[in-house]
Amino acid sequence: MKRGEPYMASREQEQQEFYGPNLGYIIEMYERFLEDASSIDEETRVYFETHGAPVTETVTPVHVETGDFEKYLAAHRLAERIRAKGHLAADIYPLKDHPRENELLELEQFGLTEADLRTMPVSLVCPDPPAGLSDAFEAIEHLKAQYTGAAAVELQHVDDLDEKKWLRQKVEQGALTAKLTRDQKKQLFKRLAETELFEKFLHKTYVGQKRFSIEGLDAMVPLLDTIIGHLIANGSETINIGMAHRGRLNVLAHVLGKPYEMIFAEFQHAPNHDLVPSEGSIGITYGWTGDVKYHLGLNRKMEQQSTNVHVTLANNPSHLEFVDPVVEGFTRAAQDDRSGKGMPTQSQNKAAAILIHGDAAFPGQGIVAETLNMTNLKGYNTGGTIHIIANNTIGFTTEPTDSRSTRYSSDLAKGYEIPIFHVNADQPETCLAVALLASEYRAKFNKDVLIDLIGYRRFGHNEMDEPMNTNPVLYELIHKHDTARVLYAKDLVERGEVSQEEVKTIEAEISDVMKAAREKVPNVEKEYGGIMPDVVFKGVPSIETGVEKDKLIHYNDQLLAWPSGFTVFHKLEKVLKRRTDALTTNKGIDWGHAETLAFASILSDGTPIRLSGQDSERGTFAQRNINLNDVKTGKSFSPMHELESAQASFAVYNSPLSEAGVLGFEYGYNVFAPETLVLWEAQYGDFANSGQVIFDQFITASRAKWGQTSGLVMLLPHGYEGQGPEHSSGRLERFLTLSGEKNWTVANVTSAAQYFHLLRRQAAILGKDEVRPLVVMTPKSLLRHPLATSDLSELTSGSFKRIVEQEGLGQSPERVERLVFATGKVAIDLADALAKSDESYDWLHIVRVEEIYPFPAKQLKALVARYPNVTEIVWVQEEPKNMGAWSYIEPRLESIAPNGITQVRYIGRRRRSSTAEGDPTGHKVEQARIIHDALTRTAARTENEQEASNTNA
User: Fold this and answer.
1) I want to staple 941 with a disulfide (CB 3.0 to 4.6 A). Which of 57, 102, 322, 945 is the partner?
2) Alpha-carbon distance 735 to 883, whole Å?
């Protein structure tokens, strides 16, 4: 077919012209047409649109009088079948317990013979062949060797043609075949020996103790060595690893360099800081309650090519995959330069993440999908993560047929177009080749890649389990199967690479090192428990957080200055322009305005800010609008980026519809960037339910368990406005239940100024010993409520107040009989009712508890002492009695009550299973009843009376 000429021949004639190189060309063009019709010339595209495929799709060749077109087509289809389905026939299972589907690739399936292929050119089936192939038959055999060996690749789900072509070229030119020198092979054997003999030493020395051994996946250690080495060579200065407990001790010892004696000391319950190397290359952090040894992380610093490189294994609880987004957060923080104003500057090659997954956990835990979904998002991408599935083909005691609905544990990754390599863990040389190719892919395309390292688990889930009870057939095979060390040693000896004497010498030297390390460990158990640092126990100090008036006005003016020609939506423009008057009149600064001024002042102090959450650019309730969009062009602009006085970066991202994944990411980001004010905002506070594991296992307890500090801020909209049970409660009670050892601050503030000072206080403690996370129950209806606004003078001086007294009450202390305590929105409801009433309330005083945890006992006790004639202490809340702060606050209020008051009274909703009414009318009735009871002198009732008064009780 000639370009530029009409093509009028019959389809049979057309096919007859497609032979030899022409056939390969036209098939390639048709594949490009299917991928992207615009990528080929118009004439060819019209031909394909008119006639469809250039050939019929039948497997059985059709006799063509002129030429061997159908034979050529069959050969091409066979080659494509090998590329697409070769993994089904590959030797990727060490136990040989999965049938290899070789029949899929038989010549007869395609109506071909060896003789047919001998007449065809190599280029027909292998466009980029290695040297030495003579014809299509040899090329087909070569493809089979590459795609059905100890490593297999899945690429059909990858849409990008450049990526697919690059990977195919690499594989077909032999990238999956390791090319190691004799010394490298010897070193590889030594690594396998260190890995296995370490496990055997632990098994024999510490009988019956859990360690979750790596055995069956020993090749993971040299595989990680290869990946890390390649990442460093490509510019990574920080490498972060996340993994669960399987094989963790071995990775700590051999990849991170944790001293054997330190690990042995933990088995003997005699941990000793003196066992850590004195040169500071190993960083081990400690909390005061600690954690089991197979959850602990470690930092290693090493010098490579005159560059300091940091390798981190993240601390991880037994919630397996929940460390994944945390490590991604670590990595993005290491990539971002936050030192200048505007958006942070990301350098993707500066840091890299490696995530090691379990084969049952990868498809089984939704947090994996949440993490994978971040891979290409602007606020969360990390330039490609290298995923490794530590595939021991069993989860706890569960067979794959009971734990997933897919053929491979890795299939979830296909939805994200992640290339997948399956590799036999008993073939260590091939494992290194796969590791190198995966690393090269990450470096070239800055995208995720996955290695499915397929092995087995030599013992039960832990070393005290008896797996023959639940998986007898599998473990009969395992008991008869030699280890990777034994198999590789045998292979090297047979190939003449090493002698049997060399093998014995290497193993003896390794054993001697471990024995010597064991002798360094004291035999005396160390006393249980560490000491909580005094600075943690004392809590957050009072910090002056006011900002000069002139500065706030200057910030405000700049934040309302938009580029020339930039058109803001007219309704939004009016709302924002009101902020000019708010600073100079008594109209008041609302919540969103105060937040913006706080951010501006924090940036001007040199503290970077990162905020993310669903709709956080605008704010769930349209209260923020920190990024503006031109209504004519759609172009985005953030005034924060143009702030003259800013000395650090500002970033706000609308997050994916994820809580656990995004919250984990932001926690990790803050841990790795402790100087940054990192805020995560829930769309509604109750959505935090979906991130509960991150709260429970990381944010609340990381310092006590691992010595890992965080200053993360969590903003949780909370308040009862008749919107139903799903959008009322931020579940304050859960955060108070998790409170202990001054582990964080839980606040429920009632004014814009209080929020302003709270944010500035949090920014001031970042990077200091007293730093801790901050949980804020943020408002909804109060965002613009007049009684929650503040004057400029309230921002220019002072600091955050742990308690706030209601203005106008308590003026005559001797007359006050009832002290009402409340927190958050219900306190504003009470203030609103007072403002609308003409009654005298000299018998009443109301106090807002703005910082609920740590409980401000000293301040409240002093306040109570001012009122000598108090006969009642009442707690008022809008949440049901079994929710909100009541269970936490009751004993604390009783502890500060004056003599004669033995019980704190409760006013609020009765105990319920659901958080709030679903009907707005019912809500209004109940809310009015609460306010009435709190402000009526004879209305305080016993719990039983309150319960009985509700007709639904």
Assistant:
1) 945
2) 11
Give percent above pLDDT 70 in the chain.
92
615 pLDDT higher than 60: yes
Neighbours of 937 (CB within 10 A): 12
The model's pLDDT over 808-853, given as tens digits with 9 standing for 90+, comes to 999 999 999 999 999 999 999 999 999 999 999 999 999 999 999 9
142 in Cβ contact with 132 (< 8 Å): no
Cα angle at 875 between 893 and 686, to 5 degrees? 105
Q: Which of 165, 168, 149 is nearest to 87 (CA)?
A: 149
**262, 422, 435, 442: which is closest to 348 by C-alpha?**
442
φ, ψ of residue 613 to 5 degrees: the values are 160, 170
**What 3-state DSSP class applies to 610?**
strand
Among 929, 927, 953, 950, smallest CA distance to 939 is for 929
Question: Which of helix, strand or coil describes residue 629?
Answer: strand
Query: Could you tell me which of 812, 865, 822 has the C-alpha nearest to residue 843?
Result: 812
Determine the 3-state secondary structure of 798 from DSSP: coil
223 closest CA partner among 399, 62, 435: 435
- Is residue 116 classed as helix, strand or coil in its secondary structure? helix
Nearest to 413 by CA among 445, 441, 387, 384: 387
Residue found under tokens 């803001």: 568
Angle between helices 182-205 and 500-519 (to 10 degrees): 40
Question: Could you tell me whether strands 298-304 and 307-313 are parallel, antiparallel, or unpaired per DSSP bridges?
Answer: antiparallel
**Tokens 């890992």, residue located:** 708
- β-sheet bridge partners, residue 803: 849
How do 609-613 and 650-654 pair as beta strands?
parallel
Cβ 949 vs Cβ 941: under 8 Å: yes
CB distance 349 to 235 below 8 Å: yes
Given a contact cutoff of 8 angstroms between Cβ atoms, the answer to whether 250 and 214 are in contact is yes
d(CA 857, CA 918): 36
Residue identified by tokens 């953030």 is 638
d(CA 315, CA 241): 10
Question: What are the φ/ψ torsions at residue 282 (nearest 5 degrees)?
Answer: -115, 125
901: closest CA among 821, 830, 827, 841?
821
How far is the C-alpha of 826 from the C-alpha of 810, rounded, in Å?
19
Which of the 8 DSSP states describes residue 651?
Answer: E
Backbone angles phi, psi at 75, to 5 degrees: -65, -40
Q: How far is CA 695 from the centre of its chain?
A: 13
Q: Which residue has tokens 């390798």?
A: 311
Of residues 74, 92, 93, the one with CA closest to residue 153: 92
- The secondary structure element, H or E, covering residue 166 is helix 161-172
Reported residue count of the chain is 953
What average pLDDT does the segment 123-128 reach?
A: 90
